[in-house]
Records
---
Amino acid sequence: MSRTAPAALTADERLTALFDPRGIAVVGASRGPGKLGAALARSLAPFAATGRRLALVNPRDDTMYRTVTDAAQDGPIDLVTICVPAAACAPVLAEAAGAGAGAAVICGGGFAEAGGPGVGYQHDLARIVAETGIRLLGPNTSGFLAPHRSLTASFVPGAGTVPAGSVAIVAASGGVNHALAFMLTEAGHGISLAVGLGNAVDVSAPDVLDHLAGNPATRAVALHVESVHDGPRLVDSVRRLARSRPVVALVVGRYDIGAFAASHTGALATSWQTTRAALAQAGAVLVSDERELVDAVGALAVTRARPTIDPGVGLVTAQAGPGLLLLDDLKGRRTRIPDLTAATQDRLAQLLPPLTFQRNPVDTGRPSEVLSEVLTAVSDDPGVDVIAAYALHEPDAVDLVAAASTGRRPEVPLVLGLGGVGAAVDHDRRALLAAGVAVASSPRGVAAAVAALTSDAHARAATASGIGTTRPAGPVVHGVTGAHDEDQAKHLLDQLGIRTPRRRACTDRAAAHAALAELGAPVAVKVLDGAILHKSEAGGVHLDIHSAADLDRALDRLDAIGAHRYLVESMAPSGIDLIAGARRDPVFGPIVLVGLGGTTAEAVADVAIRLAPIDPAHAAAMPCDLAAREALFGWRGGPALDTSELGRILAALGDLLTANPALDEIEVNPIRLTTDGLVALDAVVITRDVDDAQPDL
């Protein structure tokens, strides 16, 4: 592959120049041991020891090259690492591109994350990247690690000790990148590539994910997300990569950290819920913290479960107490733990003491020589797709490495929690990993790893079955523009086949009284004005109107708030109020959502989100994400949700949004779950000027 000039390189070749260079220049190299350039030069010494070029550049040191151009005259320089003050970085980057380098890394800070002049410095970098095509990692990053290449482009002490392996890290933060690399090393895993993106002026998470799709050394990817600049591109990259390698994602921003996030990378954190939903829909496994990320991606780098829509887990424990912790954690993650078949229980009864629990979980009482046979019996159960196990290190009672290695079935992954401390425990954990057994040090770690395996199995099965890829066949309305009052919004819902109450739009009191007579009591009376989005808060909604006198009193109150038109509507039966809608997320584009509704919807914020368009089958599964999901399925004699009906409604709303560029949002709140199904009690349509609208691609 030719790398003689920047114009000769494709975008992927430039990433190869970044992560697998023939030669590296360190600009700002120094003899002062505490200097950034000196630390980076020391880290890169093993790279030079492999016979590739390492050129040190410092115009104030006669023993080094004065410029990158001088260094490039003596041999190939594919990557330039820049360790100079922020104000001086842009000229160096431009020189690197002119000298033929395909990529650069800027390790120092002082750019957009610092505000002030730093914003301009970062703008200058972006301009040079656009003009020359050089790929830039950073600025404001601590670099990357490529242990298979003996390449440690990092100034962090100890980074060079991270071993080569099969886990890749793509982290928004250079610090998190290194923290995860060290945690994975402690857990017995090696790294194929670990990248800290920093301010991501050029090289972004999708770039690295796409590059990893062609990296045979990578078996699983840990993705750390703080902010998203191009949601659709990130989703596409995760989706492509997840077809061949599991992606485990940790999204920062569940709580209010926007100000600190802005000061970190110069970009605000995006919606936590929307980002997680989008990544999950793309096939990523979601985790809640960095410890779970290590346990999850470590397990998936060792083994994967067979694709299954609803995987079952068999739990085997050699100590009841840790087993209860593990069971409780798995249940909290909504993991299915089925009863073992009668044949499996009979088989276990021949192996275990009679007083032990054997239905699932399986309690062996203590680790013993029958553990291998117990694991085999549970693996053979037709309802078990993954085994979660825990045992303390008791080598006098049982050889856990031998038991796990011989007892497991290759098609049924085993995650073994091995409790204990010391060199012997560390040795056995690494031996288990080498034997293809995923390992954790605690019950919680086992639960996180098992949940990752089952989530990955479900996502792959859903992809294979076509769920989420087929467009709905329902009616799609085009040409939605302009302001909509509630009656017009509900007419739109009627066209989509979404049930609404009988109603009449009225321009005066006489028409309102005629509507009451026609519809029959009780009715609801509302102000009809597209400019009033929150009618209840404005005093614009009056319920349970039974008589003409009731109606007049309600109309008096509506007139008092300036009403000129009224909506008279049949009262809906009692039920559970939900919110359903579709809107344009500023980062990810069209999304649909469903959750608990009514006037408390924003305060409760119990919602499920998916990218649109979405097929009805996929949308029908969204209520499973809700914390209050049990209330929707006949709770205490209440109405039971028909998920297929809800799925059709959500799919229709998503299609409406994607088909109408001028439509920004349609919210149905509440949509009431009644014994007769779902009925839309209120709806809001928000549009923008047609000239400002762009169609969704």
---
Amino acid sequence: MKLRFIAAAAVAACTALCVQARKVHTIGDSTMATYDPNTTVTRGWGQMFQQFFKGDVTVNNRAKNGASSKSFYKESAYWQSVKKQIEPGDYVLIQFAHNDEKSNGCDGDELKAYYQSIGDEAKANACDYRGTTASGTYKDYLRKYVEETRALGATPVLVGAICRKYFDGSTIRRNGRHDLGDKFDKIEGGKLTTGNKVAADDHTYDYPYQMQEVAKELGVQYLDLTTATKELYESYGDAKANALLFDGNGSTHTSAMGATLIARLAAQLMQKAGILTENINLTSDLSVNPSTVDLGQAYKGQTVVREVSVNGFDLVPADGNVSITASNGLKVSANGSDYSSTATLTYKEGNLIGSFKTSYEFAAAGDINESITVSCGDKTVTIPVVGKCVELADGVAASAYWRLEKDDNCTVEGPVDPIGETYSEMKLQKYSSPNANTTWPEGTGFDATRKTQRNIIEGESWPAGEIDEVSTRWIEFAVKPAKGTTFNVNEISLYVCGCGGNGMHCKIYYSKEADFANAVNIADFSGSMKANDMMEVKATPVIELSEGETLRLRVYPWYGSAATGKTICLSDVKVAGVAVSATNGVKSVESSELKPEKVYYSLDGIRQNGIHDGLNIVVENGEARKIMK
């Protein structure tokens, strides 16, 4: 009887494991990442992946803009945080190459060491550490992902990076396929040579080929998405691919249609490889993404907009319409501007790759449970819409405000402790009017004489070839609740522009995590920013910041070409909300009761018991300032 009991328990445990919902974790770069439809038209294929699965398989897209195999591994906000989410039975899809090429085939750390060895500090400082060598450090990091994924009881899958749309006539040329063999740099015998070339059958500098070699070496399945996207782009041709598959900002990042087709190719490759075949959804039925629309939390009176992708293949009839109907309270729009209770998407030749937007005004506190019905002929999909309306706690108005007109001092209202402005691979240039032609948004009352803070890259030379944010280059502002309080943040705002040229770009995020993991994007200026045109960034988040937590706001700038002297201008940075007593919940408190004491911080936001050697931040009498010891 005892043996039967043990056997039965083992079978039950095995059965529980077998029916456990599985996750597909996707890690990679910006071509796979998730984007906010309210800030950009760019979409990553990992963002569109969920609709090609059925059953209990969930996609956890953790791809990160600007990541290389090295940076995603070394920066704690990424791989280490993904590992905490991986469970036995899961799959991890690994796609890197785009940013591994940052040093033209060299390893970024090795290139920096080379320049330091010859005394060229300017070039050493300009080196991008993300670069890896295709046959060397790139393969080393791929092995780490494979081994560490297996150690967690999950299955690694290596995925060849999607092509860049680099056409040579009617075909994608060699570097578009991530093979740098036609032009690369290398360090050999203590010397750097540039513009090197090897024969077409020499794959030493071919990243997807070297990834496939790792797959063979370690017995890992490899999905050749590089070749699949090459064939996809070539089937459209340069002009048509650019118009339909890409986001209009270069030859790397895709539109919703391009990302959807690539996600479907990835699912097809998984099916051919025998990976999760019972859960792959490639039928002609309508599919939607996401399958549940999560409006998140919002304040009473706030309107939230979400995007839903709708796809169908081999639809009958060949030409027709898809009707969209929203339940009471929701509105939908096929064009993103005209909202009503119904909308229509038109398709031709049996295929639909489209999207619509849904809008909801949060009118009363409580949970939101609505639905949207998508129909085509006898095919119908019902999409649950969920969310929660919250009311801002009754307490004391609190804010941290950096005017940034003559210095980086912070004006404080109420019980909140600001942490001074900090930089990584950026520095202050000066405070001045951006330009005599500077324009400000209507209603500010500011004109071209208003001074702003100008910031520039360390070394003052922006490197060539950057098409996305650099994870180690940022400008940060941060706040903490004062002792004994909880800070409910409901506003983050600032003004930003480029100065000196139209090539400045930036993305802006906030995060409560110490390592800036799970950051939330509130502005995406991936398209070139018009010089001297100050733009307002304003978000209305629902953030509860408890005592001991820090809210960090970061601006990640890059320039579209090699340039010197170009700056990013910031002004009027503000984090505001309501502070309440941490011990008495939402009980109102007088600001005089919780006036911030004089406190000291290190530059990375760690509270200190006094002034330490070096640069310190002191908060006193409602202002934050930097002091040197």
---
Amino acid sequence: MKKPLLATLSVAILLGLNACTSTQAPSPITQAKINTQKINNNVLLAEFKGPYGGVPAFDKMDLAQLKPALEYGMQASLAEYQVIANNPAPATFENTIVAMEKAGKALGRVFRYWGIWSSNKSSAEFREIQREMAPKLSAYRSKISQNKALFERIKDVYESEEMATLTAEEQRIVSNRYHGFVRDGALLNAEDKKRYAEINQELAGLQTKFANNVLADEEGYVLYLTEEQLDGLSESFVKSSASMASERGFEGKYAVTNSRSSMDQFLTYSTDRDLRQRVWETYYSRGNNGDENDNNALIKQILTLRHERIGLLGYENYAQWRLEDRMAKTPENAMDLMEKVWPAAIARVEEEVADMQAIADAENANITIAPWDYRFYAEKVRKAKFDLDSDEVKQYLQLDKLREAMFYVAGELFNFAFTEVPSGKVPVFHEDVKVWEVNDKTTGKFIGLWYLDPFARQGKRSGAWATTYRSYTTFEGEKSVLSSNNSNFVKGPDSEPTLISWDDAETYFHEFGHALHFLSATVKYPSSHSGVRDYTEFQSQLLERWLLTDEVINNYLVHYQTGEPIPQSLVAKIKQAATFNEGFKTTEYMSSAIMDLLYHTTDPSDIDPQEFEREQLRRLNMPEEVVMRHRSTQFMHIFSSEGYAAAYYGYMWAEVLTSDAAEAFANAPGGFYDKELSERLVKYLFSVRNAMEPGEAYRKFRGRDANVEALMRDRGFPLPKE
């Protein structure tokens, strides 16, 4: 299961969806003078300058400017919202909703830089600023969402006759604004509003600490190996490990970092069972070591505060509130999907473990398969069943060639052409970051830029994600896109290509799908980029399917040394093994998704995180050989922010759409490159972003709703019984 799209705080700020009471502000004239002076003196506040309609000044980022920029940006933004709220003219779409779309731009620019420090180049100094500012930012958002006069104007537009004259996109923006404010406490009494805002501030601090604790454990635990401990590891992994150890001052050693990409490879190939156990325990113990970075107490505090807050709004549990505006609508609907798939997933795990145990017994290993053995023996089963060696496949998966393959797919489906921008023309925040210009292949029209930051390093959070530095809009003149993909691949040694696993190649395509979602937008307003969480993963999951198309396989999967195309016999094995190990992959993901729903539908007073995790997994008959993909104390998706809280199920919900849409392409006359279907794909599933209700958009593409049968077929599971 791929990493989700990073939810940037700047979007929430610009939309004003998470935040409360009016404040006295300077006059617009005074404010304008302050703006000019401050922006000229602080690059983080300044409008983007340079080529391509302006780009972030990543080469001039100064951490000393961050706190003043945030403080000023909040002050300026609140003044702008207050002018809107105090407008004596009757509320209209133009003077209220459009005015809100324009507000907060300076602060939005600051958060482009904040996101880089937070995700790509964190440091102790930044984390201290983050810890201090998180509650202040929460208070800022509350001053917007609980501004009574502002809400009344939104309500007036929502209930006005003007609504009928607006476009579908504009009507959706107004509706989302209104319901967003209501869901964030706009209708509460003064006392409850005050407590609501206090809870938000407390949560902001706790969630920030949760994330920083996980990052500290990822940075703080590195296993250094000697040459005698490398048995079974691939040549490329050994070289990369030596390079990482050298960078950390351990020349002659080999570093296994506490990241998923490093852990996955080590557990798959190392023949040293004791070391496998050590690496496994270190990775899955993040945030759970009983030290200053332990997250158990934070989990209970976060859940308790979330529960109290939704109680103020009259909901029974947090998940009920969270899913109200999602495709699933209710936690019961989300759990129903999980329950349709879960039995088949754990049944498949039982089969997979039996196959592994048989091999271990045949080798006289004298072991019972444990979690740290799963990847290692799964690889042996793969070789025995399909004669498929993952390391052999890896020789044909060069990072640069896969990027070219993604460009080819984007050209065929979206008519995009990618041209690398010369070094130095566009500022970047690290030497590993490269930038490409994106244009329409036919007209030559400039679409935007694509930034790529592919490699793991200290200070960079784990996983893979996509984000934007500027989204496409037309309401103030056409704005081009600045999109970004970020990964944590283990960098190949100097002068050698970076080789990645098949799973990592799928992740690469997945995140690029998010970038294409940004780049293909044709919406008018910034708010139309706010995603419905159990839908936004659909487009990116769908793009993974093009990795296995003949056009990609035959032209871009070539051996890193000989340049020879991948043999068709090996391709056949890959396709035959497409559903191999699906029990493990589905179970580790779904256990996390189900636990997320359980955490957010249970009274927190009854929850002790470690005991709750053990007891609920026991109740689910969780196979003891598999662990949650994200154990509770490291579950960043749901405890470091609220974007995926009670919504991690969304990957599976989106996967139902993905499997159904993939079958449409598989059955189309032109297959996965069918022109007519590709046009519908771009028109209804990518370009509209959130300007159209997701269910309606999917029906326009497919002609009907999706169903779960395609998903079960994809995974090789029996169809669920009615």
---
Amino acid sequence: MTTTKNMKPDIQIAQEAKLLPILDIAREMGLKEDDIELYGKYKGKISYEAIHNLKDHSDGKLILVTSINPTAAGEGKSTVTVGLGDALNQLNKSTIIAMREPSLGPTMGMKGGATGGGYSQVLPMEDINLHFTGDIHAITTANNALAAFLDNHLHQGNELNIDSRKIVWKRALDMNDRALRKIVVGLGGPVQGVPREDGFDITVASEIMAVLCLSNDLEELKAKLAQMVVAYSDSNEPVTVGDLGVEGALTLILKDALKPNLVQTIGQTPALVHGGPFANIAHGCNSIMGTKTALKLADYVVTEAGFGADLGAEKFLNIKSRIAGISPNVVVIVATVRALKMHGGQQKDTLHIKDVDALKNGLSNLKKHMETIAEFNVPYVIAVNRFDSDSDEEIALLINWCELQGVQVSITEVWANGGAGGVELAQKVLIEIDKNKNEYSPLYNLSDTLQSKIETIAKKVYGARGVEFTGKSKKQLKQFEEQGWGLLPVCMAKTQYSLSDDPSKRGRPEDFTITIRELQPRIGAGFIIALTGEVMTMPGLPKKPAALNMDVDKDGKALGLF
């Protein structure tokens, strides 16, 4: 049973774990010492030469971990991802975990850390949760260098005739900071630049993060960066990074950040932790280079996609799978009794009290995510991440319900027991893979109009009755089609807490519409973002941020990263 009783804090468990030197982990994967660029004793990057040498290796099997719509109660998707990888390792299956790296903003905000939990963590968790190998800092620098080049172009004569009112490139910061959502730059007279409105996105929402995660090599990275739209001219023509001529400089800044990071779990399973786009405002998947490198090095790769299947998994299957030319052999949908009860109407502060009726009502949320994965013709398994407050009656009800749906289901206890708590789940995942029933197909054709793609996602994935487009988004639909961008996939920016675009509507809302307020071109990344509801690209901090609990002792040991 996953229990919080008598359990040490995550950070203490992580600090007491025995780590192998990362070169030992690399050797077990079949890599040589020269293939790893060391960032200390326990972190490394895989060199471009090593990745090139793997190109003729056959691919392993891919396992995608997703979940129901998250709640404040927590689902433990990352924990299950790590635990499942460790469990496969315990079954003597050659396994690598491929995950996203955490953003500092949510770490300091609500999450307090994003490397799994309990005895299913990737290590060293303090480094990964803070600066790691500097990838996100490099992306922040490249993003803001581009902003500086753009403003300098305006100041130095504006050769491209950029309309300063139509600049769409924002600055970025890897922190939740609502005060920076809308700002004014260039104040103070002619020598200070051209005054204009500006704003900040959180770094993980930057198009550069998406471009890095969707590139196969440096040349592709440079080509994608060149295609990014930063503004529009006086004649309303798009202005790109290539027009500014700075794609080479940006690639230079990112040349090391593109290399996948190698770390390990508490169970000493190799983990490639690389890239970290949000799933509610970006595409929510780790890097293609991380996933594809892992597939060349292991028989089984466990990866994850952010938030519920309505966000991360949908984008993995409609965007990443197309661009990378890969698809999961099986999907794991993580659910908890606690979260399902919240979706069924129970309040967070009463979740420790048994409420079978709330659980029954909340099952509709799980059912919708099962239907969504089935729409892609990919097999799936349900992982019930158990907590100590779950009653036997509630667990039995959930297991019986899943079995009546004809789906494989397993109780997981990886938080308390590490890989040993996920062995049954691993066995059932292997059974589904061996059935070889994966007939993956995306939900829409790229030849469909942008409007049609948006409506398909809203209806088939969210269960919406229809879609309402604001006047602005209608104009943008027409404009983007005329620009030739209509053949791109769509990346929906939507609240993670609901299938609808209203975070207060839990469970499985019915008879609702999705409102598209604005579209944003992400031509370098290769998709169009559709902003729904009130979702924002720069989050704010909560009233009591997790940062209030963080500290460091006199020896430099991190405290309060939970």
